[in-house]
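Predict the holo structure. Ligand: zinc ion.
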Amino acid sequence: MKCKNVFKTMAALAASALIAGSVCMTEAKAHYDEEEKPTWEEVEELLDTYDPDGAYILRVVHDDLGEDVLQWIDSKETLLGEMELMVHESTHSFEHQSNKWHTMDIYTGHQQSVRVTYQEVFPSHEMIADIPESFHQGRFHTYIGDNSENVGANNWGIYGLLDEFSAYCWGLNSVISLYEYFQTEANTKRCWEYYLSSSYSNYLAYAEFNCYILVYAAYAKEHYPDVYQEIMTNEAFKQAYRTIEAKYRSLLTRRNEQLKEFALQHEETIEDGYLTVQGDLHQIEDPYFDELIAWSQKPIYQAIYQELVGDAAEATGFDSEIVQPMSVERSAAVSEQEQTDHSWLWGTVLCLGILTGIVIMIVVITRV
Ligand SMILES: [Zn+2]
């Protein structure tokens, strides 16, 4: 099957392959020049079928704003690996479509957006001292650290951080939404590697940007009371944050389910944060993620979170779902293997029990 067959009969093929319970990866058979760029219509058709939110964002950017969304794609061959980047960057364009000063339209799903306006900010860079050095890795350097001079996440403070949080969320949404396509049309090792690397990268971004947003607000509370006051009275900002944060968290849960399903269907294993794909190890969890989540749960940041999400806190449940490391949800395949692996232990215990019984009997008999 082709890696990028975005052309025809996708739904029919997907349905028939699912019914057949296909679990075998197939070799890519190119029926076209894979170096060729996909057309806008091909991308639109693929997203219309699998990722309606991505299709809507791209359509606004392509049709209404007149931007070349395909600039983020190198070729048909790499389309699935670059899809999340295209949706991510298009989300930024979407959110700045008003072209007005200190105004963003945060996309919240189902063709809806929330217009967020603001006045005062301080650069995100200023809060570095409140971010532990062990977190000075990953996206920190680009968005908060020394290299962040010209990025919105730094210059527009917490509002720029939300813009980035949202872009990573919709990027992940695209990967997760295309899972069915990976299972059927793109069921090759290379395409699964695209799925794994894209979803892993965007999984980390949740913990990073959620942490930055909470630290920013806490820093504002201490050093910039006016900025803090504006954040906490900005209902549009709070609504957008609440929606994106909950959506992002639900995607992480869905990702865990998909990884588990993939491991079972393809008879691969998940162990110590890694998933095997035909003998190759792919990282799917990271201790850095867990450390960021744990940091975000400090009382000072929990209080900020509660204030941001308000009454919705209980409904969204910050400390549920993803806070549980995926290891507690490891695939049944892994559990079965562990059960098999532990069978020797039970055998040994049984043998020792029988031997002990025999020894006791001998002692009793000889004494008698
Ligand atoms: Zn971005």
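The chain has two domains: 10-330, 338-368. The two ends are 78 Å apart (CA to CA).
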